[in-house]
Structure formats: C-alpha cells, structure tokens
Amino acid sequence: MAEVKAAAKSNASHSAGKPKNTNGFWINLGIVLLMVALGFIVFFVLLGSPSNFSDPEKKVPLNWMGNMYHAGFIIALLISMLFITITFILERAFTIIKAKGKTNGAEFVRKVQYHLANKNVDAAISECDKQSGSVGNVLKAGLVKYREMTTNNELSTDQKVLSIQKEIEEAKALELPMLDKNLVFLSTITSSATLLGLIGTVFGMIRAFAAMGTAGAPDPTALAIGISEALWNTAMGISTSFVAMLAYNFFTTINDGINFSMDEGGFTLTQSFAANYK
C-alpha cells in the first residue's frame, strides 16, 4: 500500500512538473530575446549616437563608443550575450543562495546527527525547517520516512533502511534540477562568446587588409577602422566569456557542496536507523 502511494506521489510530481518546465522554457526564451533586443538598442542608440562621431554622416569616430560602433553588428550580439550572462547570474545567485538555506550544510548535518543519536526525530525535523534549504528539504523527507519506519513492524531493518534511502533519493531528484537550472546558458556563453568574438576579429582583419590592398596609398581611416573592429570584437568576446566562466564555476562549486551535504545527510540517516533500530 505504501509503495502504491509512493508511486502515485511520484507520478503526480512528474505531472505537476510538466507545465512548470514548459513555462520555464518560454520565460527563458523571452528573457533571451529581450536581452538581444536590448543589445541592439544599445548598439544603434547609444553607440551609434551622432555625439560619438566628429562627422555623423561619414561616421568618423570621436571616442571609444564611436570606435566600438564600427566593430559591426557582432558587437551588438556580444553585448546581448553580456546582458544574458548578467541576467542569469542574478537569477542563479538568488536561487542558489536560497537553496543553501539559513544554516551551513556541515553544521546542519551535525545537528541532525546529534538529535538522531538521542533518538529525537522530531527535533531533527525541526532543524530541517530551520535550515529552509535544499539539504533541509531532502533530509526532512528522509526523516519523515525515518519516523514512520520506527513504528513499522512488517518490514525488516534492511527493508526499512532501503525505504528511507529511496525517499531521500526521490527528494534529492526533485531538488537537484532546480540547482542546475539555467547554468547551461552560462556554460554555453563561456565558449560561444569567444568564438563569436573571433568571427568579428576575422571580419575586422579582412577589412584592414582590404584597405591595405587598395591601389596606391592605403586608406588609413579604413585600415584603422578594420583593426579597431578586430580588437573590439576580441575584447568583448573574451570579457563576456570570462565573466560567464567565473560565474559558472562559482555556482557549480556551491552546487557540489550542497550535493555533498545531501549525500552526507542521507548516509547519516540510514546509518543512524541501522544502528538504533536493529
């Protein structure tokens, strides 16, 4: 009967999750499109402003923004990528800080160990509520099953331990996707921004060599614009990639710590039950 309820609970969780995943996709797509539009607005309105050129009609650069404007439409895409990176850094920071909870994972697990050693399961569950994070959610699910198994006379100790372990794994499977969600944007931008910047660099060098290859004296203005285009694309591509890489590594390190605390807490629960309720 308990297995049937668990299966029904699992199926309900998956069914309830489908609309959320769909909504999440459209929200993320909307954010990406909005950032792309914002990037092109910055490119045409801010960088392309007449105040950035000594001769607005010929687009002769007057400052660094005018030079950046001459780097071409790829700069607009790189600016969009930078905005996307910043947006998902803020989103991940808010989510992962909340997932860490109010108590350090290692300290929280030690408190749970202490209460279980004294066979005070309710106090351990109370600690989970205080922690208010992913580790607390996972261990609370395990502790509820733990408490249920202490009064179960039908299953053997090994079966009870497996039941607790299964409950922990199911709770963990619901928490981990939330921690890893949207990190794919940062990992993708880490490599794609550099490559896109290199494409812009190649276009700039093509323009520079084309200016050098003209009959007679090379056009110094066209040569300078071509080199500027190449360098601005390189700088923007590397900078955006660098920011995305740092953020991705930072968040994955935190996620690894949370995951380790979940595993440590789950091991604590199963070992405690096996030792105290043989």
What's the quick description here?
By secondary structure, the chain is mainly alpha-helical. The protein is built from 9 helices and 2 strands, in the order αββαααααααα. Helix content is 83%, strand content 2%.
Question: Could you characterize the architecture of this molecule?
Answer:
- The chain is mainly alpha-helical.
- It has one domain.
- A two-stranded antiparallel ribbon has the order 1-2.
- The two termini are 24 Å apart.
- 35% of the residues are buried.
Topology:
Layout lengths: L1 H46 L5 E3 L4 E2 L2 H6 L3 H28 L4 H13 L3 H11 L2 H17 L6 H24 L2 H30 L7 H57 L2
Antiparallel strand pairs: 1-2
Keywords:
mainly alpha; 278 residues; disordered N terminus; 83% helix; 9 helices; single chain; two-stranded antiparallel ribbon
- Shape call: rod-shaped
Helical stretch tally: 9
**Structural class, judged by helices and strands?**
mainly alpha
Percentage of helical residues? over 70%
Strand content: under 5%
How many strands appear in the DSSP assignment?
2
Give the helices and strands as they follow along the chain.
HEEHHHHHHHH
The biggest sheet, with number of strands, parallel, antiparallel or mixed sense and barrel status, is: 2 strands, antiparallel
Mean pLDDT score, rounded? 85
Strand order of the largest sheet: 1-2
Span from first to last CA? 24 Å
Count of folded domains? 1
Runs with pLDDT <50, length 5+? 1-20
Cα-atom radius of gyration: 28 Å
